[in-house]
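Q: What structure does this chain adopt?
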Amino acid sequence: MTDESVFERLRARGEAVFSQVSAELMKNPAFVQAMQAAVKGKERVDEAVGQALKAMNVPTRSEFRRAQTRIDALAQELAALKAERPAAPRPRRPKPRSRRAR
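A:
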């Protein structure tokens, strides 16, 4: 028996036990009610954290993602514009004067 087959059997058994326990818990109305209350509580916490971050002028995760998406789009537009435009010649820099020439 290989290590993989032992692991696969243990994983399959664990999934079966987890499914059975989950099904039993979902039959219990008190558990379902507690889970619903927990979800509502998490929503309230998320909302409060968002308001606190806004009050501190810190972007929320969704605001940050939106800004990152916009920055990525602008970077792509800039790259496309640079690709369309021929490269401009670089200006020459004057040679530094030597001190002996005075």
